[in-house]
Amino acid sequence: MSKIFVDACFGKETPYTPVWMMRQAGRYLPEYMKVRAEAGNFLNLCHDPKRAAEVTIQPLDIVGVDAAILFSDILVIPDEMGMDLEFIKGEGPKFNDPLSTQEDLDRLLGGEEAASKLTYVYETIELLREQLDARGDEKALIGFTGAPWTLATYMIEGQGTKTYNICKKMMYSNPELLHKILRKVTEVVKLYMEKQIQAGIDVVQIFDSWAAAIEPGKYDEFSWSYMVEIAEYLKEKYPHIPVIMFPKGIPAFLDKVYGNFDVFGVDWSTPMSLAKEKLGDKYVLQGNMEPCRLYSKEATTHCVEVIQETMGTKRHIFNLGHGILPDVPVENAIHFVKECQRVSKK
């Protein structure tokens, strides 16, 4: 059965431009908050296939998006590699044992050993595959991972950071160790994504949330080359599965983008016209409304119309330029989806 979202990822003709939102299964939805409360906390929810599948599907029914994105978290990877992860209310994720030496890295699991521990993710996907197929509504299921650089920053810093000074200190003073960490994470991510595909996802997205932390001259060496390696590993084995790359905040590097993947996610700091000029012939483009526009229906409509004017009805997927925020009114999210479908209907 052909899915509109998958067709769009491959640049095929679709009846309208499909739309989904990053973090669409999240805190702005009262229905999500109810299930999360039942689970006890965020990590419990990630580890509970039945509930994780339930919140993955919620945005399809409530908001009307064209694809579901697996409910999980990028940090389940280092967690299952053997790091001590906890989510602290009001502060976010924290590793109590950040990496600073080769010995720290050596104690972590790698490759198949780590990837095979993420069984709850694969079980969630299998449940979703069953439920989505039973619905017969042709909505696609997106699986995802954090990029090795983004994962490594958390593993080295121990938590979110505004300065990245600990991992950047390693980048310049001990690049060999940073590359060893990135290599180990990359090998786990390859197998993790492969197992997601085998469990039943339709599309893969690789998030490099902290791409903008690296100076342009170093970006390929410490991030993009590892992302490309993962994408090429997957495309070689599963050419029918589209791969989306989403590096956040790199308008300066667009000329340097290369690799075997299908869709380039454009963040809101990058003008869509610039992305189209630099990359539109090579990749389908996804994005890129500023998420805060969702606070105003007028601002949303205006932006959707401008993006549509720039992109036309080909080689594009509507999305936000980053994740939806927790206090956005649900009706405004629904308005965004309807407007994307209205302006692009053929």
UniProtKB/TrEMBL annotation:
Keywords: Cytoplasm, Decarboxylase, Lyase, Porphyrin biosynthesis. Substrate binds at residues 23-27, 73, 154, 209, 322. It is found in: Cytoplasm. This is Uroporphyrinogen decarboxylase. InterPro entries: UROD/MetE-like_sf, Uroporphyrinogen_deCO2ase_HemE, Uroporphyrinogen_deCOase. Catalyzes the decarboxylation of four acetate groups of uroporphyrinogen-III to yield coproporphyrinogen-III. One of its GO terms (biological process) is protoporphyrinogen IX biosynthetic process from glutamate. The record marks 73 as: Transition state stabilizer.
